[in-house]
Specification:
Helix content of chain B: over 70%
Low-confidence stretches of chain B: 52-56
Largest sheet of chain B: 4 strands, antiparallel
Helix content of chain A: 25-40%
Shape of chain A: globular
Number of strands of chain A: 10
Order of helices and strands of chain A: EEEHEEHEHHHEHEHEE
Shape of chain B: rod-shaped
CATH architecture of the largest domain in chain A: 3-Layer(aba) Sandwich
Distance between the termini of chain A: 27 Å
Mean pLDDT of chain A: 93
Number of helices of chain B: 10
Strand content of chain B: 5-15%
Number of helices of chain A: 7
Radius of gyration of chain A: 17 Å
Mean pLDDT of chain B: 80
Oligomer: heterodimer
Number of domains of chain B: 2
Largest interface: A-B, 22 and 18 residues
Radius of gyration of chain B: 30 Å
CATH class of the largest domain in chain A: Alpha Beta
Largest sheet of chain A: 6 strands, mixed
Distance between the termini of chain B: 27 Å
Strand order of the largest sheet of chain B: 2-3-1-4
Low-confidence stretches of chain A: none
Strand content of chain A: 25-35%
CATH topology of the largest domain in chain A: Rossmann fold
Order of helices and strands of chain B: HHEHEHHEHEHHHH
Number of strands of chain B: 4
Structural class of chain B: alpha+beta
Chain lengths: ~220, ~300
């Protein structure tokens, strides 16, 4: 589903964010990218959804070379991926329902599809009763659930999560991980960047560890060391 | 499709209200610059009226000295009639002292000082010449020839007066055109800035839109509509201004005596209408193009 071949990303002149990274993530896998801040986890995610382009190497998603896509095809690439962030990136002037609906609206889905899909996914993340709330009326965990609902409502092939539990307490994190696990169960490939030891150790999934932009470990059913 | 149009219209309107002061500035500047463009058109057309009216029967006037003898006058007459291919002999008229004085009284009605210097005895008489030829150079060369005839005081060409008017109209055209172009650039700059502010206010939304796979066009269209609307509203305001200006001028001119030339500086309504349509068009295009460039430019943040 996602394959990187000797990918190097350099910011500016000589800040190497990722060096010669290669890995292959099959469909439906759940993968943790771990490592300290600045080790290149976020950059890897941004290379996958083409927010960044590498200096060397190729990034393949669903059989297509991401870096050779014409700019006009990038939106279609991104429709196959959902994104979840540490700071949720919700629109504060929109309700829970509207935030999730927004993701469908802006890719031109008709009203009746939106009316059908959004309640289903809100039910899935456990926010069916709070659809008319605004983000500021929700707890951090609930806001992250809204953001996951928004990422998942278009049924993407891939879910990219950048420190999704970074702002949450352990109990709430557990709930969020359960949700991501559930989404993974539906066949969605999940790539999650984190430096949260507890969630990695609890889940026992594939772990790719980065240090200074270099992959130093790639282990099935790994733990955070 | 309908949801997309609805989305674009809603977003345009919301953004319009959010940046009310900047929007008003952009609209007013484009209105003023378009008003100047329109005024340039109207002035041009008005002067054209005047020039066309004169050009319709180019006249040369041969002034004869008041002390010229009857033989000299007869000689001038026969010389004029000797060029029937250039001069319309049938329209050749001679104004004697009484007639010339009557005409002078009309010409200098607003200038009693000059008139008081003239008496029926001292006034030059004149031949009014209507040329057949359209070639001003030919007429001019004839006039040089007539100037040397005995008894001729001066030869006046209507063409010389055209030059004053066309120089004046060219000057006004250049000045107003330059001013309106400068203002138009300022208007584009203001529209550009409004769009940038609008996009900055919505950068979070734009970021989310890009991440969930909205196309650049989808993101851009509301901003383009906003710019188009600003330009168009500027056009509407300028049309109102132009109409008011033209009405005031037309009724002002109606107070002048006919035949003074000024009264011909009036523009027909059909022309005014087409100028207004042009202004609306320019406003819409400038607004849409300016904001499209701005939107494209600031989309990659």
């Amino acid at each position: 589903m996602i394959r990187l071949e000797n990918v190097t990303k350099i910011y500016g002149k000589d800040t190497v964010a990722v060096r010669e990274a290669s890995f292959d993530i099959p469909k439906s896998q759940f993968v943790f990218l771990v490592g300290p801040s600045g080790s290149g986890k976020s950059t890897l995610l941004r290379l996958i959804n083409r927010q960044e382009q590498p200096e060397h190497g190729d990034v393949w998603v669903a059989g297509r070379n991401v870096n050779e896509l014409p700019a006009s095809q990038v939106p279609h690439l991104r429709r196959t991926m959902g994104n979840v962030f540490q700071d949720y990136k919700l629109l504060l002037n929109k309700t829970v329902f509207e935030n999730v609906a927004f993701a469908l609206e802006v890719i031109g889905k008709p009203r009746h599809v939106i009316e059908r899909q959004v309640p289903i996914v809100l039910e899935l993340v456990g926010l069916a009763g709070k659809r008319e709330r605004f983000p500021e009326q929700l707890s951090g965990g609930e806001q992250q659930r809204v953001s996951i609902a928004r990422a998942f409502v278009n049924r993407p092939l891939i879910l990219l999560a950048d420190e999704p539990t970074g702002n949450l307490d352990p109990t709430t994190s557990e709930g969020i991980m359960g949700l991501l696990d559930e989404i993974n169960e539906t066949g969605t490939t999940v790539v999650m960047a984190t430096h949260d030891h507890r969630v990695v150790n609890a889940m026992r999934r594939r772990v790719i560890q980065l240090d200074n932009g270099v992959i130093v470990r790639d282990q099935e059913r790994g733990v955070y060391e | 499709m309908f949801s997309r149009i609805g989305y674009a219209v809603r977003e345009t309107w919301a953004s319009f209200r959010r940046n009310l002061t900047l929007t008003a500035a952009a609209i007013l500047t484009s209105a003023v610059s378009l008003l100047l463009v329109g005024t340039t058109f109207l002035i041009q057309r008005a002067f054209e009226n005047l020039l066309v009216q004169w050009r319709g029967d180019v006249e040369m006037i041969v002034f004869v000295r008041s002390d010229a003898s009857a033989e000299q006058i007869t000689l001038i007459d026969s010389v004029l009639r000797a060029s029937p291919t250039i001069i319309d002999v049938n329209k050749l008229t001679y104004l004697n002292k009484v007639e010339s004085y009557e005409e002078a009284k009309r010409i200098f009605v607003g200038d009693p000082v000059t008139l008081s210097l003239l008496t029926p005895e001292s006034i030059p008489t004149q031949f009014k010449v209507v040329p057949l030829s359209d070639d001003p150079m030919l007429v001019r060369s004839l006039s040089d020839q007539y100037r040397t005839l005995p008894g001729v005081e001066a030869v006046a060409l209507a063409e010389d007066e055209f030059q004053v008017i066309s120089t004046l109209s060219n000057f006004i055209r250049v000045v107003t055109l330059v001013m309106s172009l400068v203002l138009l650039v300022v208007a584009v700059g203001l529209i550009w800035n409004t769009i940038r502010t609008a996009m900055f206010a919505r950068r979070r939304e734009i970021e989310v839109m890009k991440l969930v796979g909205a196309t650049n066009w989808f993101i851009r269209v509301p901003f383009m509509l906003e710019g188009l609307l600003q330009g168009l509203l500027g056009g509407v305001v300028s049309c109102g201004g132009l109409w008011a200006l033209n009405s005031a001028w037309s009724s002002g001119v109606a107070g002048f005596k006919p035949g003074t030339g000024i009264s011909s500086l009036i523009v027909p309504n059909s022309y005014l209408t087409s100028v207004m349509l042009i202004l609306l068009g320019i406003g819409a295009v400038v607004g849409a193009v300016g904001s499209a460039i701005a939107a494209t430019r600031f989309l990659d943040v």
